[in-house]
Design brief:
The complex is a heterodimer of chains A (111) and B (115). With 111 residues, chain A is mostly beta strands. Chain B is globular, with a radius of gyration of 13 Å. The chains are: A mainly beta (111), B mainly beta (115).
Chain lengths: 111, 115
């Protein structure tokens, strides 16, 4: 069974601060996806990383896939209240393209 | 991006009744659809994987007779919660994977409340 450890589980910061969310596993994934979910809605895909060592940027969000494709990080620069939400990492591997989700990071950015 | 529509978004039902939730891929064909359950402030728990035209594969601990899944076409999968009980109250979310594509896109979720 593939497991993804996501940390921290809860994060409350002030507007303008930086933060990093981590996803770690002992398993290798063919790809890793990051989602953001707001209450009462489904997750929205932010990015997919596929290649070991890959770095992708989405405005103030920077995503990195570990060289061994076992871990990933999400860094947010100058967080804003609109960044508040549940951030989920999900690794894809094995047959049927099943996603293994981390436990999620509930981010609150206070104005 | 690909659009996945889930219906209804909210449903309240009486204990003992059955509820059907639909998941449709609106602008693409989905060979595989996934059904998840999510508790408040927690991550998604995979319940089952359904492939068009074949039986769903259920995760360990998920009762297949209670959560009936049908994937009759490349654009529609349904989850029926049979003989619902209050403990089945939860947020149910589907996702769909495009043919020849690894990315999965999520529906907006269904809030089920069993009273």
């Amino acid at each position: 069974t593939q497991l993804l450890e996501q940390s921290p589980q809860f994060l409350s910061i002030q507007e303008g601060e930086n933060l990093t969310v981590y996803c770690n596993s002992s398993s290798v994934f063919s790809s890793l996806q990051w989602y953001r979910q707001e209450p009462g809605e489904g997750p929205v895909l932010l990015v997919t990383v596929v290649t070991g060592g890959e770095v992708k940027k989405l405005k103030r969000l920077t995503f990195q896939f570990g060289d061994a494709r076992k871990d990933s990080s999400l860094h947010i620069t100058a967080a804003q209240p609109g960044d508040t939400g549940l951030y989920l990492c999900a690794g894809q591997g094995g047959s049927n393209y099943k996603l293994t989700f981390g436990k999620g990071t509930l981010l609150t950015v206070n104005p | 991006g690909a659009v996945v529509s889930q219906h209804p978004s909210r449903v309240i039902c009486k204990s003992g009744t059955s509820v059907k939730i639909e998941c449709r891929s609106l602008d693409f064909q989905a060979t595989t659809m996934f059904w998840y359950r999510q508790f408040p402030k927690q991550s998604l728990m995979l319940m089952a994987t359904s492939n068009e035209g074949s039986k769903a594969t259920y995760e360990q601990g998920v009762e297949k007779d209670k959560f009936l899944i049908n994937h009759a076409s490349l654009t529609l999968s349904t989850l029926t919660v049979t003989s619902a009980h209050p403990e089945d109250s939860s947020f149910y979310i589907c996702s769909a994977r495009r043919v020849m594509n690894t990315e999965a896109f999520f529906g907006q979720g269904t809030r089920l409340t069993v009273v």
